[in-house]
Batch of 2 targets.
Target 1
Amino acid sequence: MKAFFAQTRTELMLSLRNGEQLLVSIAIPLLLLVFFSLVDVLPLPDGVDKGVQFLTPGILALAVMSSAMVSLGIGTGFERQYKVLKRLGATPLGRSRWVGAKITMVLCLLVIQTLVIGAAACALGWNPGGTPLLAPLAMLLGAAAFAGIGLLMAGTLRGTLTLALANGLYLVLLLLGGMIIPFDQMPGPIGAIGRLLPSGALSQLLQSTLRDGAPSAGSSWLVLAIWAVAAPVAAARFFRWE
Amino acid sequence: MSFPTGASAVPAIEVDDLTIRYGDHVAVFGLSFRAEPGRITALLGPNGAGKTSTVETLEGYRTPTSGRVRVLGLDPQRDHANLVARIGVMLQSGGVYTGIRPLEMLRLFASYYDNPADPAELLDLVGLADRQRSTWRSLSGGEQQRLSLALALIGRPEVAFLDEPTAGIDPTGRQLIRRVVSDLRSEGVAVLLTTHDLDEAEKLADQVVIIDHGRLLADATPTELMQTSDTHEVRFGAPGELDAGALADRLQAPVTEVSPGEYLVGASGTPTLIASLTAWLAEHDLPLGDLRVGRQTLEDVFLRLTESASAAAAVDTDESGSTSRGSRRTGRSRRSRG
């Protein structure tokens, strides 16, 4: 247990020390939330009058994606490139404790992000509704799906390529995922594709669990569950330590 | 620091008839050697000789194509979980989180082991006590290597694998690493050091295993290797392009400039011959660099062995239809000797 705690503490410390990772996981989501809540330029779904009501669930989904996919993927990709993973392989740490430390690190980041974003949203007048107790479950499923995608990139591509691809994917999944632009404001086919993406499924679920009057999202549970199983399985299958 | 002492009956490292292939390329072929506790064994060879493949097999990273390797009597892959607690590894480069500070990394690694060395003490030993606030990426190459060495020793290993520990390091850092490695001997640690730096092997190693093209060329102590079979030669260093013909006439023996500023006299190193040689240099107001009689440096042995191995390999590959590999290797071995 000593090794596991030390590993987790180090992983968390290194993520919080890394400026780029903090930018992606905290600063950008916060900036989007505050800016688009105050500046009324985005289309809102039918029946929503305040931007923050729609944006907060979407930004929480974005936070999950940024820490579980971007931050984890890029960090691990460079650890692999700089042979940290290879070196750890010749210590008694072991893979299961390493994976456990990574998971715990992402969960800690999620708690920090949720507290920061939740506090900012409340300050902007957010009033959560729906069935909020189910929201953490959706976030956990989302974290598993995004972590799988991030680790799949980190374990198969060079660090710099993972960096580029993770950031590109972040933008695409953000725009098509209904996080800032509602699905009902997108052309039909694009919205349909977006709902099948992990970002789309997660944002749908967080809308329905955190906002009164949001459309029910039964099929999104299924879509997200499939991603949450398939992506980690693919990562475990194709991950190369060197 | 104290390390486990006591030589057990089991050799620290056993390599028996090891062959490693990557597709068509044979990296290591039929290699056998042993390394003992309390001794520094240098695995020496030009770049691409098969050193890293051999060491990575011993560390459990690679599967031998055939043959058998044991570390402390254990199979590096099958008994990996038991073995990693007892070995220390220093990779050629990297292996450390880029944003971490030296003491943080040592403390992290210390948490992996049941009875680790003291991180602060070890940091001091490798001369990094004053670099505690710097992250890995802001350390110099030499400082990074020294931290890697400390990380290899944090678990008080019984066997330490050091892959090119002083490659590309300034002289001060090199001295420090050599001193730390040398001290491991008295702690009973078996050290396997890969290097293409002959000077390092000569200064540090108790046993030298020379390989090229994945094959064993020699396995002996440095002294054994350097005792030349042919004592009919005298080597000396002097300014380049001196009048070898005139000197040969004076000595009544052939004189050749084997490399710039390095001369070979084909005669026994009798006191008379040496007297004539130094007298001739004095008459011409020339300085004498070094002077060796009946004793080769490891470099001489190494070049002779690797060049003949390259020539043999070139013949092999010519016969099998693919060419130039052997001659390219020779070129590399020449470059890597400095």
Target 2
Amino acid sequence: MICIVALIIFSVLGIFSATHRQMAKEALDCVFRRVTLRPCNTGFKEKIKSQMVAKLLNRSAFLARAFNRYYEVFAWIFFVLMIVSTFYVVKGGYNYYLYGSCNGLNQSGFCAFDPKGENNKVTEINASCGIEEKSEKNVSLDGVDLSSFPTKQVDSKDTVVLVGCYECDYTRKAYPDIQKLVREKKTNYIFAHYPAKENTNFLSEIGYCVYKEYGDRFWSFNDYLFTVDKVEIYQSEYINTILKNFDFDISKINDCVNDSATKEAVTNQVNQLRKTHLYGTPTVFINGKAFVGPKPYRVYKSVLNKFIIF
Amino acid sequence: MDMKKIQHDFPILSKEIKGKKIVYFDNACMSLKPRQVIEAMDEYYYEYPACAGRSHHKLGEIVTQKVKEARISIARFINANENEIIFTRNTTEGINLLANSFDFKAGDIVLATDKEHNSNLVPWQALVKKKGIKHQIIRSKEDGTFDLDSYNENINGVKLVAMVLTSNLDGTTIPAKEIIRTAHEHGALVFLDAAQGVAHQKVDVKDLDVDFLAFSGHKMLGPTGTGVFYAKHDLLETLESFMVGGNTVEYSTYTDYKMLKAPEKFEAGLQDYAGIIGLGEAVKYLEAVGFDSIKKQEYELNKYITDEISRWQKIKIIGPGDPALRSGIISFYIDGVDMHQFALMLDEMSNVMIRSGQHCVHSWFNDKKIYNSARVSLYFYNTLEEAKIFIEGINKIMKII
């Protein structure tokens, strides 16, 4: 058993060290012999055992004696532990590929492939938003009316919904990938602005009005808001300049924004979004499945791929 | 002996591995090399890296002279004549030279001990198959010493006695002089495998009156790939050349050739000049240290180690209990314990390097049904301090076995 354990451990260490590479070769030879029903008489097992016992012996005679006596038992324990840990490593790799986190979709525990947890970071929504529990299990589009949000209908069976806010770093990080996904996979697309920090509530109203008044011209305006320096969009006076640059009628937009029906509609939009139980932005729904935080592009794409990777 | 100076002469002894000095107790396999030997070899490659004998330019002349000096030194070392020394790659090659050059006929008997290294066993076993000779064994006494009575009973009709002078298994030395005298009285010739012998004791071929003898350079401070085959000159001329070609002939035509006389006719092809020069230097070094001092140091260490490990009843020493009869060798085993593991643990714990296994004497282990043994083999540069480190390691290991 120790040969198999050693093969895997030394193979990994061998990536960085020539000494361990040689040990991995010896372990492979030993494993190959065992697989081909021949005794492992290369001395590798003795070498490993001796090194381990000798190291223990320099520290504790009791431990060395126990290890020497119950070596096979320890070898089996190591083997089982290795199998279990290998299973979790493979599972972690699988999860990381599919969900951007070793721990599964929207799980924020430690992940060696994403040690800083970049793929799960969100701009949390203010407590005042009244979110019940920060759990992705509760995040759903069930019973949510998205009909009033800007929508691109291309008659696709797939629909991507991006709930994000203009000022939030993580939404800004995910935004280009979502645009690329929608473009490459030709999906239906709904954008919902949720002002997570409530600094940009006014942008919800402006966005609503631009979409209402100018239809598809909204999308280039939206792209601009996600790429422009955040400092500019914090200040409402700059928005007029932006609207002007996009050749929108400022007075028309302002009239729309000041209209009580707009305020009611935007409030209704926020209420609809709260029904999703989202707890941070960006939250992306792909065919109803929620992805919280900015995931790598492959994660979004794999949902729409026929066979995961293509 | 000035141990400080001697230790200084061996560069490897001042090196450390993982912060610890090495304790090298595997001298029966390979001795360490003093800087004098290394420098002599370096000098060849730096100063006169040319051919000996065949080239008459300045560099060639220097090499020829240096090789000649080495041959003289080595001949003096075993009290032989210069033209009785044939350079080989090792003892094994020397034995094969004899086995393949001697005029054996079917039924000829070759007599050996029961502790022969494979190098002095397999060539004769091969001749059993090839020429139909008979290979007979003299079993050692219970304590591992040579059984002269059995030898005397079996010497009749023997063509060649081919025995190991000092066993690499347990360090015992056969009573060579008596064996040779008896053999000659019965018309037999004697070959001695002196691989372990010449490095640890004075071997005088004239005093022994031995007919053939072979040894290696690497066990006596010399370079690897060097060895010597000795034969009395008159016998040497009767041996057929084992390998022929360059350097072995006086001249050749398209249809014929004339062989040179010994030793040239046995030294086919270009020789390891650097190695031969290094071996000459090793011989000088050993002579300067002196075999009395070498034997004294080995005995003291052997006695200390024997006394210490004998405290553990589980440890069984191969060969006689008296360390004086075991040269610098302590071979031991523990029933049910793989001695490879034992040796590896010593290496890992304290950089103590000993040999484990069957030491190329598989026949003895197979006969005794002993799996393997650990072998401590000492040399004059080893110290009591090193022996104590070894014993400390042994005591630790024994507590967990």
